[in-house]
């Protein structure tokens, strides 16, 4: 029987193994199995360093049997088999209860692969009842010792019920029965890129004879992933450009000109450049699809507002969707302030959120439906059926990664192919932009507005230096005494009373709770911190308020209004203040449990201070120990204010898993081998190849293999998702 990549697993390997693979790895087809590539390769002649095995973690090693003994068990009937395996330097034991026949297999000198959870017994590393497979062809190995020892041995991501050799056996069954495999590359492209045929690449990555086989197979399959992905993204870009949109040209002396004349300051060079690009695209007959990325405080909202004014000149409406009500309300206030009384009265900026009262919500909906409100700002409430537009010309999505593709599409569907402008204050490495946002044109604002006083960032490692914790609150009080204001950010709204010290300076008296996996939970909650600060000698005289997502919308808005007006000294909040909140007098950002936040999130939070002429101070409070990944994240943020440099560091620390997920790309991730840092050149080359192919063959009629792979990996569901990006 010949299999295809789409053949159901049960037909190829049997029902029981297929169910096991489905439960463990979500596999459904032969294609899923043969793209479950080895995670690494061992050599039969190389013994894995036993002393480097992580206690408590599953491990797979190549080792040699040193000693085997069988003895009666003391507490119950039967016998215990104890085996010592080694690598020439370290040793560990294997134990089997009531399975004395193991001694006939595990004889001294035998080599094999051993897999189990690493434990410790009597100060010696141990596998209890491990899975193993001995090398059966030792006789042949002795005749061809050198070659046998150097053949790469695939080691797969495995489970306790599916050890690596069982997966290897199932892959062998699939490969033996696999027929032709679609190849995205033409013979000419394969030769130019030094790539293997697709079928041969699969064969060599799973059954390599040499290290060179592994290298060429990986190169080929990485190129396939990059080429198929870039082809799909370029196709989507071409499809968007084929749509018809209403041109929204700027008029001399129109709304944009009036707005610029009243600004009172000049745009930064980057704002001007990006503004020119956007203005030109809005005048086109196909929809703009542009991502604008820039540092916190670089003026992205101003660029977006100028685009909204250009759309309004033709009577069109713009909708700005923000992830939180706090941010939506902040945007409305900022836009209204920037417009000034005359333009605001003409354009009627309107807020639409779920917490508006029935009467207010109805009046807002009428203004939007009648076209009176030409600038509409809101949250998910903009997506509801009750919100309709007279002429939606521009959709602005703020912090787009907060929204699912379905939500974004629901807003865009309220107009006739409206232009789309996506804003993000999370700088994106170029390779990620190519990989995730390849169907968008990307603009970058690097230059910052003049007059920013800058920010200093320090790590407060309170596990190592408990006394620094008290100093954090003294610094907060000192800043308030200077007439400034302070943000305090917590990772949780509430924590158990036992997790917060009775006094904040007794940080070492209250161990943080541990989750089942051993990870520590948030140490500090908004409610506990706000309450405790109100009773501390250094801070009890300060005006302190709490702000978090569970507060009623009116209360949240009231807190932010009072803070912006200088009526509150310290706001203790969750990350509801992460983006968009603009209080120029706020000088200090204190982030508790800083190690529980990502690099980009810490950078976003830090950007809430140092926005005016007041110098900014950011204190990253952490109990993470030096040398741990959590501490490295915090120290990376403290080391630089360059968000683009941090984005690269973040990618290096996290890997691609978080970056290329469904939430951001809108597509099922089919990337198994591609690495956006290491393979930047390959991705760039693949994009050029995709553009060249589609220029000459837009329907891929002469590229059947590529067409089949794009269809298989980016089907109608995925394409629909991509259209919504």
SS element count, helices: 27
Query: What's the shape?
Result: globular
Number of strands: 21
CATH class of the domain at 255-445: Alpha Beta
Structural class: alpha/beta
**Oligomer state of the chains in this structure:** single chain
CATH architectural grouping of the domain at 255-445: 3-Layer(aba) Sandwich
Mean pLDDT: 83
The CATH topology assignment of the domain at 255-445 is: Rossmann fold
Largest sheet: 7 strands, parallel
Intertermini distance: 41 Å
CATH superfamily placement of the domain at 255-445: P-loop containing nucleotide triphosphate hydrolases
Strand order of the largest sheet: 11-12-10-13-14-9-15
Notes on the protein architecture:
The chain is α/β, with parallel strands linked by helices. Among the domains are: 191 residues, P-loop containing nucleotide triphosphate hydrolases (Rossmann fold); 186 residues, 3-Layer(aba) Sandwich (Rossmann fold), CATH 3.40.50.300. The chain has 27 helices and 21 strands. The strands form four sheets. The chain has a seven-stranded parallel sheet, sandwiched between helices. The longest helix has 32 residues. It is globular and about 90 Å long. 44% of the residues are buried.
């Amino acid at each position: 029987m010949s299999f295809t990549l789409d053949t159901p697993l049960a037909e190829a390997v049997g029902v029981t193994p297929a169910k096991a693979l489905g439960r463990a790895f979500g596999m459904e087809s032969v294609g899923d199995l043969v793209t479950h590539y080895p995670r690494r390769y061992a050599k039969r002649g190389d013994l894995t360093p036993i002393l480097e095995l992580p206690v408590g973690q599953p491990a797979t090693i190549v080792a040699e049997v040193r000693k085997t003994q069988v003895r009666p068990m003391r507490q119950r009937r039967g016998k215990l088999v104890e085996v010592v395996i080694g690598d020439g330097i370290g040793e560990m034991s294997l134990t089997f209860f009531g399975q004395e026949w193991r001694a006939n297999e595990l004889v001294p000198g035998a080599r094999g692969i051993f897999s189990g959870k690493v434990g410790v017994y009597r100060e010696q590393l141990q596998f209890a009842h491990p899975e193993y497979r001995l090398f059966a062809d030792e006789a042949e190995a002795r005749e061809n010792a050198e070659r046998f020892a150097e053949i790469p041995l695939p080691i797969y991501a495995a489970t306790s019920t599916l050890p690596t050799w069982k997966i290897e056996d199932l892959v062998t069954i699939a490969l033996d029965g696999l027929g032709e495999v679609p190849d995205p590359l033409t013979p000419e492209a394969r030769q130019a890129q030094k790539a293997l045929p697709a079928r041969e690449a699969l064969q060599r990555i799973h059954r390599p004879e040499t290290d060179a086989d592994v290298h060429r197979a990986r190169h080929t399959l990485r190129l396939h992933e990059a080429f198929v992905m870039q082809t799909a993204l370029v196709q989507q870009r071409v499809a968007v450009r084929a749509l018809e949109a209403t041109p929204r040209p700027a008029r001399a002396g129109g709304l944009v000109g009036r707005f610029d004349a009243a600004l009172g300051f000049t745009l930064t060079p980057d704002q001007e450049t990006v503004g020119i690009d956007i203005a030109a695209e809005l005048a086109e007959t196909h929809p703009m699809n542009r991502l604008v990325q820039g540092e916190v405080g670089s003026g992205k909202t101003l660029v977006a507002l100028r685009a909204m004014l250009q759309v309004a000149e033709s009577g069109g409406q713009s909708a700005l969707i923000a992830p939180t009500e706090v941010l939506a309300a902040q945007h409305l206030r900022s836009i209204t302030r920037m417009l000034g009384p005359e333009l605001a009265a003409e354009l009627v900026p309107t807020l639409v959120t779920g917490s508006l009262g029935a009467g207010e919500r109805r009046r807002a909906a009428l203004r939007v439906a009648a076209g009176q409100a030409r600038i509409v700002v809101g949250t998910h409430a903009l997506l509801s059926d009750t919100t309709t537009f007279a002429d939606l010309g521009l959709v602005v999505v703020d912090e787009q990664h907060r929204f699912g593709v379905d939500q974004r599409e629901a807003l865009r569907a309220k107009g006739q192919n409206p232009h789309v402008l996506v804003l993000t204050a999370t700088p994106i490495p170029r390779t990620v932009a190519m990989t995730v946002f390849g169907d968008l044109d990307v603009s970058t604002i690097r230059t910052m507005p003049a007059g920013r006083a800058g920010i200093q960032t320090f790590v407060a490692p309170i596990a190592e230096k408990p006394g620094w914790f008290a100093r954090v609150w003294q610094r907060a009080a000192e800043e308030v005494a200077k007439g400034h204001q302070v943000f305090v950010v917590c990772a949780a709204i509430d924590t158990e009373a036992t997790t917060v010290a009775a006094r904040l300076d007794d940080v070492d008296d209250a161990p943080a709770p541990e989750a089942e996996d051993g990870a520590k939970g948030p140490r500090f909650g908004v409610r506990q911190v706000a309450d405790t600060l109100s009773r501390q000698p250094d801070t009890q005289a300060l005006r302190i308020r709490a702000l978090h997502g569970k507060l009623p919308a009116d209360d949240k808005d009231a807190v932010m209004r009072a803070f912006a007006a200088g009526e509150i000294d310290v706001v203790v909040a969750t990350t509801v203040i992460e983006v968009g909140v603009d209080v120029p007098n706020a000088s200090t950002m204190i982030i508790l449990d800083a190690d529980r936040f990502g690099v980009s999130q810490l950078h976003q939070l830090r950007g809430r201070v140092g926005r005016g002429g007041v110098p900014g101070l950011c204190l990253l409070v952490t109990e993470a120990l030096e040398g741990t990944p959590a501490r490295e994240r915090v120290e990376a943020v403290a080391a630089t204010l360059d968000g683009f440099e941090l984005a690269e560091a973040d990618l290096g620390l996290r890997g691609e898993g978080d970056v290329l997920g469904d939430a951001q790309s809108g597509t099922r991730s089919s990337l198994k081998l591609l690495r956006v840092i290491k393979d930047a050149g390959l991705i760039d080359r693949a994009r050029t190849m995709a553009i060249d192919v589609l220029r000459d063959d837009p329907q891929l009629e002469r590229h059947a293999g590529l067409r089949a792979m794009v269809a298989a990996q980016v089907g109608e569901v995925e394409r629909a998702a991509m259209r919504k990006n």
